[in-house]
Design brief:
Strand content: 15-25%
Order of helices and strands: EHEHEEHHHEH
Strand order of the largest sheet: 1-3-4-5-2
Structural class: alpha+beta
Distance between the termini: 25 Å
Helix content: 25-40%
């Protein structure tokens, strides 16, 4: 992953079990889309991703877990998110309504409101969101056998990607995405 040093980072959710579940789902190919709030990109000064761009996905410890390639980016309203996007988030959503409910729960949750610095932040039908589609390109090599980190990495890779109750904010700083 040394060749990845020049790639921008991407983080899913806040550090902890949810992030680790999402990273595992992304690297396994079970999750191929994510959704972020456009205002978070703007507030952080982050450019929107572009098709063909690559990013380093970070785990909860901030370590590189792999490289993603963006295949599509759309700015749209939550009211316009389609079923394919909702299903491809790999979190077990069976409908756009479930996708919306899960995302609103996360975006309106106290941790995300605190991270965004707005205790009253809400997403409505017309809030611009960034719908990204991506694919995993590489994974880092596992550490040498016998090391503690080799066991931790193997253990994390073996965990199933369960449907989390919250979602992921992409980017280097926490965002209101899932």
């Amino acid at each position: 992953m040394a060749a990845c040093a020049d790639l921008p980072p991407v983080e899913f959710a806040l550090p902890g079990p949810l992030r680790d579940q999402l990273v595992a789902a992304v690297l396994s190919g079970a999750e191929t889309t994510t959704t972020g709030v456009l205002a978070d990109f703007e507030a952080a000064g982050d450019p929107l991703p572009v098709a063909g761009g690559r990013m380093v996905i970070a785990d909860s410890a901030g370590c590189p877990a792999g490289v993603l390639e963006v295949t599509d980016v759309r700015v749209l309203r939550p009211a316009d998110v389609d079923l394919r996007h909702a299903l491809d988030e790999g979190e077990g959503f069976a409908s756009v309504a479930e996708w919306r409910s899960g995302h609103e729960e996360f975006w309106h949750g106290p941790q995300m409101r605190e991270a965004g610095g707005d205790p009253h932040f809400t997403v409505d039908d017309d809030t611009p969101v960034v719908a990204e589609r991506f694919r995993p390109v590489t994974r880092p090599p596992l550490p040498q056998r016998g090391s503690d980190s080799a066991q931790e990495t193997a253990s994390a890779a073996a965990r199933p990607a369960a449907r989390p109750e919250k979602m992921q904010p992409p980017r280097k700083v926490p965002s209101r995405a899932r």
